[in-house]
Amino acid sequence: MKKMLFIICCLFLFHSLAFADWFTPNGNDWNSWGKDRKTYYTLGFFSGVIYTILGIAIESHERSLEDDEHIKIVSKYSLTYSGISISQLVDGLDLLYTDFKNRRILIRDGIHVVKNQLIGVPTGDIERILLWLRAGRKAENKAYYLAIKDNEGKILRMIEFP
Q: pTM for the complete prediction?
């Protein structure tokens, strides 16, 4: 009996872990959701970003000021998300996912794309990011999609994402 109970518990545990890895919503999911769910999802994502920023800020305050890597991360994300409303992100994601080519892009990546549009990242950079995301967001393709090169093929700069 104990063995059977153990097996049932393991099945439930593995099922939950598999589902957690499996559910990474994309544009198809987004388009099937109502306005409330979209707003709550985006609010949750945004709250997670703020929680992370605060955690990094507290940790960097407790450390010596010589370690400025945390400060750079905090300032980068806090400045880029300040002044952006949840409704702007929801509207931007609605627009992003009207294009059938973008529907496989994960919502977490879509939020960063919309944020970049709102803070004024050049349209050419946004298009390159979208091409990279459509191609599967593979690290080995970053140099192909996200590198800005001169006429001779020399890399001038890399587009940061996210």
A: 0.74
Q: Name the 3-class secondary structure at 158.
A: strand
Contact yes or no for 132/145 (Cβ under 8 A) = yes
Picking from 100, 89, 162, the residue whose alpha carbon sits closest to that of residue 132 is 162
Residue 146's identity, in one-letter code, is L
Question: Domain residue spans in the chain?
Answer: 25-121
**Which tens digit of pLDDT belongs to each residue from 107-121?**
999 999 999 999 899
Q: With contact defined as beta carbons under 8 Å apart, do 63 and 74 qualify?
A: no
Cα separation, 97 vs 90, in Å, equals 11
d(CA 114, CA 112): 5
d(C-alpha 89, C-alpha 80), whole Å: 13
Q: Where are the alpha helices (DSSP H) in the chain?
A: 2-22, 27-32, 35-62, 69-81, 86-96, 107-118, 123-134, 142-145
Nearest to 134 by CA among 160, 158, 95, 99: 99
